[in-house]
Design a protein that fits this description.
By secondary structure, the protein is mainly alpha-helical. It has one domain. The chain is built from three helices and no strands. α1 packs antiparallel against α2. The chain starts with a helix and ends in a 12-residue tail after the last helix. The relative contact order is 0.11. This is Major facilitator superfamily (MFS) profile domain-containing protein.
Length: 91
């Protein structure tokens, strides 16, 4: 249970960090819309992920593990492509 709590705490912190970073890329006038779109996309992806996980868990347990690994690895690699906004004034 302790490891599961640690994993969930880490993943929630990582996802919240990614959401904040991606919203900060947009100018101030578009941030609310951007945050809403990203939040809606995340909710839809969570529903689709749960359905896919439930379908594959009955077949074999390695497929959901590999899918989760691929999603996290792709997200981490794509995060390196975000523009550097340090010391920039965002309008």
């Amino acid at each position: 249970i302790l490891f599961q709590c640690l994993f969930f705490a880490t993943s929630v912190a990582a996802w919240n960090g990614l959401e904040v970073i991606t919203v900060e890329i947009y100018p101030s006038a578009k941030r609310c819309t951007a945050f809403g779109v990203l939040n809606g996309t995340c909710k839809l992806a969570a529903i689709i992920g749960s359905v896919i996980f439930a379908k594959f868990i009955g077949i074999t347990k390695i497929i959901p593990i590999l899918l989760a690994f691929a999603a996290l690895a792709c997200g981490g690699l794509l995060a390196t492509k975000l523009p550097d906004t340090r010391e920039k004034i965002l309008e």
